[in-house]
Amino acid sequence: MNGLAFLIPVALLLGLSGLGAFFWSLSSGQFDDLDGAAVRILIDDENRAGGAGDAPPAQGNGSDRQKRRP
């Protein structure tokens, strides 16, 4: 019974802090544009091809090449 006297207030505190974080995210605009990121990934950005700051192309280890048959 002593364990419940400790766990119930802790559970209520965690639940209220989660609810507070949710309302804070609503007021700070975290959920304003839900479809923007989903659509943005589908748009080809041809202006960035080979631009500064891009990572170099990944080098394979050769296992992806087809082996020649004699």
Walkthrough of the structure:
This is Cbb3-type cytochrome oxidase assembly protein CcoS. Pfam families: FixS. It comes from Sphingomonas quercus. With 70 residues, the chain is mainly alpha-helical. It has a domain at 16-40. It has helices spanning 2-27, 36-40. The chain is elongated and about 65 Å long. The chain starts with a helix and ends in a 30-residue tail after the last helix. The model has no long low-confidence stretch (mean pLDDT 79).
List keywords for this structure.
single chain, 70 residues, mainly alpha, 2 helices, 0% strand, elongated, Cyt_oxidase_maturation_cbb3, Cbb3-type cytochrome oxidase assembly protein CcoS
Distance between the termini: 78 Å
Order of helix and strand elements from N to C terminus? HH
Radius of gyration: 26 Å
Counting DSSP E segments of at least 2 residues, the number of strands comes to 0
Indicate the percent of residues in helices: 40-55%
What is the average per-residue confidence, as pLDDT, rounded to a whole number? 79
Quick synopsis:
InterPro entries: Cyt_oxidase_maturation_cbb3. By secondary structure, the protein is an all-alpha fold. The chain is 44% helix and 0% strand.
